[in-house]
Write a structure and sequence with these properties.
alpha+beta, three-stranded antiparallel beta sheet, Cytochrome Bc1 Complex, Chain D, domain 2, two-stranded antiparallel ribbon
């Protein structure tokens, strides 16, 4: 009889096999509780956003403490770490600059990425309030939201990103 088994590899990936005997002896068996800690995807519609909130002012403090070293003051960073600027470079003939303000189609995708991957040396270490705050700060320094706007599960999905029309429309379940 075929059963599904899953292991967590040293790289943090969950690998599932259809039969118990097919494991390549990488990683270890993981249960539903542990898998749930990695099942944190947020769709463009905001489904799955956690409780919490944050403002740009709060986000600036978190950014300075945890993001500045890689992304530079106010997100100017190095070529692969730039978070600000680049508007109008995607359809043009000039060099393309992919940033939060020029490329990302959904503010919820920014939340999802920051929550799961940042800061690089301590991924998944920020609280939901800190993630909302950093996202608010990044949106504000890109001129997308105002300085006093609060980001939370209700307001974040309503943010209209400058490149929202540059991607295929997302439809959950299709």
């Amino acid at each position: 009889m075929s059963m599904r088994s899953c292991i967590l590899t040293a790289m943090g990936l969950v690998v599932c096999n259809t039969a118990l005997g097919e494991s390549p002896n990488l990683g270890r068996v993981v249960g539903p509780e542990e898998i749930a800690t990695w099942d944190i995807s947020i769709g463009p519609d905001g489904a799955g956003l956690p409780p919490g909130s944050g403002t740009s002012r709060q986000g600036e403090a978190v950014y300075i403490a945890k993001c500045l070293a890689c992304h530079g003051e106010k997100g100017v960073g190095k070529p692969n770490d730039v978070l600000v600027g680049g508007r109008g470079t995607l359809p043009g003939e000039q060099a393309v600059v992919k940033t939060v303000g020029s490329f990302w189609p959904y503010a919820t995708t920014l939340f999802d990425y920051v929550r799961r991957a940042m800061p690089l040396n301590e991924s998944k270490s920020l609280s939901s309030d800190e993630v909302y705050a950093v996202v608010a700060y990044l949106l504000q320094i890109n001129g997308i939201i105002g300085e006093k706007d609060t980001m939370n599960a209700q307001t974040l999905p309503k943010v209209r990103m400058p490149n929202a029309d540059g991607f295929v429309t997302f439809e959950r379940g299709k």
